[in-house]
């Protein structure tokens, strides 16, 4: 067994652990964003996508900071997966204390919260379609701190800065990736 599950195996793990449809959609959004960044930064889109798909797979069962993402990581280690996959998953959570010293780790940190903001913007559109969302509409809502107040904007800014990508360009990369899987997201 390699240090990375194939996409089909990652999907099986996600299906086994997650029943919440919105949490699955979040996983798909982060997967798409991670694949986009892999293409942009010269990473492996399959591996980066799996990190995105599995980053929150234990959240439904273990949403508190003591357990998430640590319980999921324990499960993956028990299955024989290790290394950069584990580090990548841990990197999306500040409380895990992982140094974001690779582009993969920086990307997962940068895209996680942003996908939620983009979904919130899409749901505010009259059509409720992500195709109608623009970078400008996301940036307009960005400034409204009461809009999607649970989204950690500082985390998104920090992640984009660590990647060396201007914030608006970062929003554009993630938005385009999510628009590419609109049907899967139900948007």
Give an account of the 3D structure.
- The chain is an all-alpha fold.
- It has a single domain (7-185), classed as Orthogonal Bundle (Hypothetical protein af1432), CATH 1.10.3210.
- The chain contains ten helices and no strands.
- The protein has helices at residues 7-17, 21-41, 45-54, 70-78, 84-91, 103-124, 135-142, 153-163, 167-179, 182-185.
- Helix 2 (21-41) runs antiparallel to helix 3 (45-54) and helix 2 (21-41) crosses helix 9 (167-179).
- The longest helix has 22 residues, at 103-124.
Structural category is: mainly alpha
Order of helices and strands: HHHHHHHHHH
What is the β-strand count?
Answer: 0
Q: Please indicate the count of domains.
A: 1
Briefly, what CATH class? Mainly Alpha
Any low-confidence stretches, pLDDT <50, length ≥5? Answer: none
According to CATH, what is the topology?
A: Hypothetical protein af1432
Q: What's the main sheet like? A: none
- Cα separation of the termini: 36 Å
**Average pLDDT for all residues:** 95
Rg is: 15 Å
Total of DSSP H or I helical runs spanning 4+ residues: 10
The proportion of strand residues reads under 5%
- What would you call the shape? globular
Tell me the CATH architecture. Answer: Orthogonal Bundle
Specify the oligomeric state. Answer: single chain
Percent helix, as a range, is 55-70%
